[in-house]
Each structure stands twice: as structure tokens, then as C-alpha cells.
Amino acid sequence: MDFNFENELKDKIALVTGGSKGAGKAIADRLLKAGATVITTARNNPEDHGNGIHFISADLSKPEGTQKVVEEIQKRFGRLDILVNNLGGSETPGGGFAVLTDQHWEESFQTNLLAPVRLDRGFLPGMIEQRGGVIIHIASIQAKLPLYDSTLPYAAAKAALVNYSKSLSNEVTPKGVRVLTVSPGWIMTSSSTRMLQRIAQSSGVTTEEAEKSVIDALGGIPFGRAAWPEEVAELVGFLVSPRAGYLTGTEYIIDGGTVRTI
Predict the structure, then answer these.
(1) How far, CA to CA in Å, does 252 sit from each of 115, 139, 190, 255?
(2) Which UniProt key words apply to this protein (predicted)?
(3) Taking the model in full, what pTM does it have?
(4) CA separation for the pair 107, 98 (Å, rounded)
């Protein structure tokens, strides 16, 4: 089969949630470069969400936010071909199970599990009707390597997302929709850089030493560094393309070797 890599997503309409910064922005830029019409979402309108990228302001942790996105895309574009559920994050306090309230758990599951579930439910009927579409769930290696002291609800929600993604693929792949999971390790985003600066300042060390301390806390990264957002975006760009047309139901870990088990 012959593919035009530079324009392989021409005429495809793609949504990247949480696409205003970090890996989400890199993914949105990558799909745009491949010729797709790209829509991103975030709570607040970013100063620069990319030339040619459409933006919808919405809080996807709430049902009305996901409904707004589904309705606007259906009204403005008529369909969706690619859905990258990238939104995620943890804002829970450290300290283990004892400091976590029901609200902490509920907020984490709303953002990291139920937001993608609702968006899938909103767009899948159209994908099934057209017998074509790709859904990517961005999970995390914390589904396998949970950090109980700081991100327990986040890790549990991402583990649930991986399970859900596999189950969904079994249901909808026979109907023409591919479903895949991408589980990154540590990504060097602007928020990661700020975190290293805070660690360095509070501990009286250099940012390089702070970075080493984070790598050590993860049990080491054989590759020796965090991933760049563009590296994650390149994997997603391949998975949503026709080149990956036989791939579905699989989790792809991109972590520089952090997870040491099979």
C-alpha cells in the first residue's frame, strides 16, 4: 500500500482534548501537519493554540462540557474521524490514602476516566454509521506503576481507562472503529520544567540534580531522560494514520524503558 505521509490525514476531522499545551498541543500540531482539520479543547482559551487549529472552550470533567463539545463539532463539522482523549492530570494532595477524600477520588475519575467515556459515547454512533474512525486513549504508565504517595486516584483512573479501552475495542472494531491506548511515562512539558525548578529551589540543588531525583523516584529511566512531547505525538500520528490500519485493542507504552516488566 502506498501512503502520502505528508498529507495522509487529508479530509479527516480530529479532536484532541487538552490540546492547548504539552503533549496535547504536540499531538494537535502533528495531526495538522498531516493534513487533518484539528479541533482542540481546554477550559480556558490559550493565547496561541496553533495556526489553523480550531478551539472549543469546555470543562470536560463535567457532563455538560462534553455535551457542548459533541454538539459544537457535529454542528460545525458534521462528523468526527479521529478522537484523541488526551485530557488528564492529577491535582490530589500527597500523603497516601488517608488524606484523600471522596471528592479527590471523584474529581480524578471525572477527568481521567469519565470524560473520555462520555466523548466516546457522543462520537461513536457517527463513526459506526460511517464505518470508520479511530479513538486514542492517552493513559499513563502509572496504570502499572502507581505512585501511592502522590497520585493514587490518578493511577487507579488510568488503570480503569486502559481496561475500558480494551473492552471498547472488542465491541466496536467489528463495526469499523479502531480503539488504541497510548501510555506515556514522564514527559518533559512546561509543567514538568516548572516542577523541576520548584524541586531545585526547595531542595537547594540544580535543576539537573532535581531531574535525576525524579528519575530515581520512578525507579530509573534506561533512556536517561523524559520523553519530549513531540515523540509522543509522533507515535499518536502513526497510530491514527492509514499505516496503522490493522492495529486496534492494543496499549502502546512510550516510557524510555521505565516499566521493567513485560
Answers:
(1) 21, 10, 24, 10
(2) Oxidoreductase
(3) 0.93
(4) 17
Pairwise CA distance, residues 186 & 229, whole Å: 10
- pLDDT (mean) for 245-255: 98
Query: Tens of pLDDT along 161-203?
Result: 999 999 999 999 999 999 999 999 999 988 888 888 988 888 8
Listed residue (115, 74, 114, 83) closest to 15, CA to CA: 83
CA–CA distance, 72 with 229 (Å, rounded to integer): 28
Choose among 84, 65, 74: nearest CA to 9: 84
Among candidate residues 148, 154, 164, 246, the one labeled active-site is: 154
Region of 29 please: left (phi>0), alpha (psi -120 to 50) or beta. Answer: alpha
Residues 99 and 166 in one domain: yes
pLDDT reported for residue 151 = 85
Q: For the chain, give the number of residues.
A: 262
The C-alpha angle with vertex 149 and arms to 143 and 154, in degrees rounded to 5, equals 35
Q: Are residue 232 and residue 140 in the same domain, yes or no?
A: yes
Both 86 and 166 in one domain: the answer is yes
Active site residue 164: no
Structure confidence at residue 91 (pLDDT): 81
- Taken in order 70, 74, 79, 84, the sign of the CA dihedral is negative
Q: Is residue 44 part of a domain?
A: yes
User: Would 260 be classed as within a structural domain?
Assistant: no
Looking at the structure, tell me whether residues 72 and 201 fall in a common domain: no
